[in-house]
Design brief:
By secondary structure, the protein is mainly alpha-helical. It has one domain. It contains two helices and no strands.
């Protein structure tokens, strides 16, 4: 599920960029702010913003906590 809350990573290798808006992705070896991870993040932001009554249910407490930290779901109920 972690790829859902990031710009595409299944595991962010401790970069933490999903807490902002992704970009400059170490997993991709990118040093550009507007890289693929940022473009995917922006597309997710646009699509998730259209969903009314969205709730995130983590498969573990750790995943739920990651979702709460994600900039994509900071205003979305996460359990």
């Amino acid at each position: 599920m972690k790829y859902l809350i990031t710009g595409g990573c299944h595991y962010d290798e401790e970069c933490g960029n999903y807490q902002e808006q992704c970009g400059t992705c170490p997993v991709l070896g990118s040093n550009k702010l507007q890289d693929l991870s940022r473009k995917v993040w922006l597309r997710k932001q646009a699509n998730f913003g259209k969903m009314a009554n969205l709730n995130i249910i983590g498969l573990s407490r750790w995943l739920a906590d990651c979702a709460k930290q994600s900039s994509l779901f900071q205003d979305t109920p996460c359990v």
